[in-house]
Amino acid sequence: VQLVESGGGVVQPGGSLRLSCVASGVTFRIFAMRWYRQAPGKERELVACVDSFGGIKNYADSVKGRFTISRDNAKNTVYLDMNSLKSEDTAVYSCNGFNTWGQGTQVTVSS
Description:
Number of helices: 0
Structural class: mainly beta
Largest sheet: 7 strands, mixed
Radius of gyration: 13 Å
Shape: globular
Strand content: over 45%
Helix content: under 10%
Number of strands: 11
């Protein structure tokens, strides 16, 4: 069972990024999935979650209206589309599901 994230990088304030998380070794379509982030010196924060069908989504107040979580069960993948990025969005982003964590991907928002 494995989760592998990709898509992180360095972006200017106001920019956009799309994170992807691919699952393997599990029946992906039956599990809810979550994106977390952890900034240096701060606790891990739940950013967004989506149910197994992709119909129910919830977001942290800090990202509502800017981030969108989605999933493609045919591709065993969950996405996090991040728009209007701010410096405070800088963190390591990790996906989580079925008691498994990915390795994380760094997102840095800086001019």
